[in-house]
Amino acid sequence: MSRTTAQIQQLNPMPSGVGRVSHASQLRHAHGATPRVLNCYALVYLIRGEGWFRDALGNNQSIHEGQGFLLFPGVEHEYSATTAKGWEELHVFFEGTAFDSWREAGLLDPARPVFTCEPADQWARQLKQVWQAAANPLDQVLRLQGFLMDCGLVATAPRPDNPEHQWLAQARKLLNETLGDPDGIERSARTLGMSHQTFRKTFRRLQGCPPARYRALQILKQAAQRLLTESTPIKQISEELGFCDEFHFARRFKHLMGSTPAAYRARLHGNQAK
Questions:
Q1: pLDDT mean over 66-80
Q2: Average pLDDT, stretch 172-191?
Q3: Distance between CA atoms of 178 and 43, rounded to whole angstroms?
């Protein structure tokens, strides 16, 4: 992936209370793809060119100018332009309880990540308004939610009648309730009347990642939130989240979050001082 413009904005490193937009950029995506997994959401919108998108949930679609797709945390995916010229895109990375709640309610559906909004120039201007609200983090989240609704990514209602949706919601709830239990996956499987292997395969098919990775992401999300909002020593946080020692916690945190817990907290304090 090669960046061809300077329109890259590091937005709010601080949560608004319901979510945050971490950064946005306009860039040229080159031909070629490497599978990856994010620990946050990302919205990608094509303003020129064409290509394809696919993920671990079975989505596999051609896309073109005026179309885009939503990437979900923990779901392996890849995408590429179809020619060496690449495509030009806008993308926004974001996270938070507002978006997690929509996903858990079935309003954001990993099974339907692709959307069409034409003409591209008009919708690109609307998406860039999210960037322009960086001074007000809550307004920024609300603008992004508005874009997601306007472009049709937010379903009009959850789908409680879908058995697989119900099963996945229950499985996630059980895993979230047993994050501090080393046997949490096994216990969740038993509660749902499944073997560990069947539970793992079913969860991976519906969620897009295995339950162990889902748990790890949730634990690290809790850790990140505590580092942002508490002065609790890092060693104590690591112990309370079930890590064998502070160094193991730091390694896992850096692997998934991109920085050590200490650097993550220091960055927060640096931004507060500005």
A1: 94
A2: 90
A3: 30
Number of domains composing the chain = 3
CA distances from 128 to 23, 49, 124, 141 (A): 12, 19, 6, 13
CA 187 to chain CA centroid, Å, is: 26
Q: Indicate whether 249 and 141 sit together in one domain.
A: no
In the chain, which ranges are continuous DSSP H helix? 97-104, 120-132, 137-150, 163-177, 184-191, 196-207, 211-229, 234-240, 246-257, 261-273
Using left for φ > 0, alpha for ψ between -120 and 50, and beta otherwise, residue 44 falls in: beta
Q: In what order do the strands lie in the sheet with 60-64?
A: 60-64, 50-55, 77-81
Residues 59 and 26 both lie in one domain: yes
Q: Identify the pLDDT of residue 258.
A: 60
Question: Residue 191 sits in which domain range?
Answer: 160-207
- Residues 12 and 131 both lie in one domain: yes
**pLDDT per residue as tens digits for the range 218-243:** 787 778 778 877 888 999 988 888 78
